[in-house]
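Problem statement: downstream parser choked on a complex file, so we are re-checking the raw output for the NAP run. The parser issue turned out to be on our end (a line-ending mismatch), but while we're here, posting the original submission so the record is complete.
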Amino acid sequence: MSIYNVCALVGASTIGYFGFQLASALRFQLHTSKLQRYHHGPDPWALVSGASDGIGLAFVRAFAARGFNVVLHGRNEAKLQKIVAELQQQYKTTSFRTLVLDAGTPASPAFDETVLAAVKDINLTVVVHNVAGSGDPKFDMALFEDIPARLCDGWINVNARFTTHLTRLLLPILLRNQPGLMLFISSAVTEVTAPCTSLYTGTKCYIEGLAKCLRLEMALKGHDVEMMALLTGTVATASSGRSDADISFTMPSTNAFVKASLDKVGWGSPRVTPWLGHGLQFSFMKMLPAWARDQMLLRIVKKMQDGAAKKD
Ligand SMILES: NC(=O)c1ccc[n+]([C@@H]2O[C@H](COP(=O)([O-])OP(=O)(O)OC[C@H]3O[C@@H](n4cnc5c(N)ncnc54)[C@H](OP(=O)(O)O)[C@@H]3O)[C@@H](O)[C@H]2O)c1
């Protein structure tokens, strides 16, 4: 083969590859949500964990607006009741109920009873595993060597163990009420790993692994329960240190992020980045050579630490 033919082949393959990537990206952005598949049977319900604030609360509002009744999970009963009272004013024909459980406490027979009591008489078809936290925001970005034992357990209990046990209890219900949907809120850290997020990264990788494996198990058994992990970059929530003033193309509001997430329901892949701005950020980071990406992340985290040290 002549050098001319080799160059032509390489050029055509490159154009073909990027053309295919572009077409897939376009198809993803234009995908129409299949959420209404899960709005079936008498009075369908969705359950959202960590529903008293931020992204979880935005999911609650989005489900209510789309005709689902909603179970709000949280740890602060008074806060949840106040939210329910407000929601009830806005969505008069929708039912809301609460599931009050500190996700940091290990599972027990009482845990099972509390969860099952909250869902025993409803047609549950959707679950969103959204809750996350360490139990102490001071350690949200910390060197592994500085994290006390209590908070190691906090990260693992809230992010991984609670989600596991909630899945153990609720998946049989979704299977009974097929078709069903289970969403797992993951994070950019599984795509672009930064220092000082060791337990957060570890538990989010766990969540994604769980979602991917469950998706295959559903296919293996011919069950119609969609499993999808949502990769999330920064969203303008108070817990991420942001407010509405920070909203931008790369940092959506909670409502915009949740709408984009629900728009991707039915896409058929176990792991999606619903917000376009996050997708472009991740693609840029992944295009960099590993050493350049690491240097960039080290610089960003160092700057954040210096900023935090100045505030203290
Ligand atoms: N915001 C971001 O930039 C971002 C980026 C990547 C991924 N995410 C992911 O998105 C999800 C939601 O994040 P968010 O920013 O919306 O968080 P958030 O505003 O801090 O809300 C977290 C929710 O979880 C509840 N919660 C925390 N610890 C709990 C516990 N031990 N027991 C019961 N409930 C508990 C909180 O309850 P209280 O109201 O009582 O505090 C609140 O309802 C998380 O999975 C997070 O990892 C967020």
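For whoever reads this later: Residues 31-311 form a domain with the Rossmann fold fold (CATH 3.40.50.720).
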